[in-house]
Amino acid sequence: MIPWHIRLTLAALSLAFSGSLLPAGERLIVCGGPEVFIIPADADKLTEMDRLWRWRAADSPEIPAEMHAQFRTTDECKPAGDSILITSSSGGVALIRRKDRKCLFYTSARNAHSACLVPGERVAVASSHGGDELLLFDLGRSGAKAAPLTRMKLDGAHGVLWDAGRKRLWALGTTELLLIELRSKEQSVEFAVEKKWELPTSGGHDLYPAADPGILFVTTIPRVYRFDTREGAFAPQPTVAEERHIKSIDQHPRTRQIAYHQGTDDKAWWSDTIRFLEPGRTLRVPEERLYKVRWDVER
After folding, report:
1. How far is CA 127 from the centre of its chain?
2. Neighbours of 286 (CB within 10 A)
3. Which of 37, 109, 179, 256 could join 195 via S-S bond, C-beta 3.0 to 4.6 A?
4. In what order do the strands lie in the sheet with 176-185?
5. How far apart are CA 296 and CA 299, in angstroms?
6. Distance, CA of 286 to CA of 270 (rounded, Å)
7. Whole-number Å distance between alpha carbons of 75 and 113
8. What are the DSSP E strand ranges found in 130-204?
9. Is the distance from CB of 271 to CB of 263 less than 8 angstroms?
């Protein structure tokens, strides 16, 4: 019998070089603690053997050892083609290539809570409480002290998304949702707020696309909303509208199943349970402090 650790390595290699072990949409990228990992979404219960891919900062020699502690609390894990974009409230940002866990970009950003790739080989980062700003970095310039190309104050910055159709950024703060243009100025670039909307309730947290390309999920401390980007209007998200502490919500673009993570009242930011809607069920990940859960599928 092949030892479990060798089987786990073979599973990870198979995922890396074939693109998947399961059909697209049946995998979830999960983060919260120092390890980011991929699991099958249709499992009844999970064991170590069910982790199809896993990453810690120490797996990427490009990240200096002194920066490993900056990835001890991961809070974003977005699929980005053959890579995964990771942020950490401990202050780290990294773009990790799946097949060999090579770090293609890393930097520091205080209380980093979200990031997105931007055309022109750039990455936007939401630096939350303590940073309270939106940052833009050049992917070709890694380093703990890499200087951002530009920055803009945004209280409690928690979410950032690139809108390819509009060629604009969406950014979420404590009390507002912004639509931002990137304006080139000679040899520089700057953020320019094109529109802003006040959130119906305070504590902006997660910002992510729904299956309908014109809808964004927006969560706050006490509520979950659907934001219609065409009408510029917020509406309650059916079923979970009044659920508190929802840290992430994502809807598969084809199956339309929703996966979300909700912090418990006593723990506030974490739990060990992933929740699903349409159809509804739960999936426990024992002994994990979960924070964000994303479908492993491109938009």
Report:
1. 13
2. 10
3. 179
4. 159-163, 168-172, 176-185, 188-198
5. 10
6. 12
7. 6
8. 133-138, 150-153, 159-163, 168-172, 176-185, 188-198
9. yes
CA distance 210 to 241: 15
Task: List average pLDDT for each run of 10 residues in the chain, which is 299 residues long.
Answer: 34 39 71 96 78 96 98 97 97 98 98 97 98 98 96 98 97 98 90 98 97 96 97 96 94 95 78 93 91 93
The answer to whether residues 38 and 296 touch, using CB atoms and an 8 Å cutoff, is: yes
Integer Cα distance of 64 and 98 in angstroms:
19
Sheet holding 36-40, edge to edge: 53-55, 36-40, 27-31, 292-295
Number of domains comprising the chain: 1
Q: Which residues contact 222 (CB under 8 A, 6 or more apart)?
A: 201, 203, 242, 244
pTM here is 0.90
Q: For residue 41, give the CATH number of its domain.
A: 2.130.10.10
Residues 172-187, buried b or exposed e (16+ Cβ, 10 A)? bbbebbbbbebeeeee
- For 75, phi then psi, to 5°, come to -130, 5
Alpha carbons 208 and 158: distance in angstroms, whole number: 11
pLDDT at 25 (0 to 100):
53
What's the rounded Cα separation, in Å, for the pair 198 and 174? 9
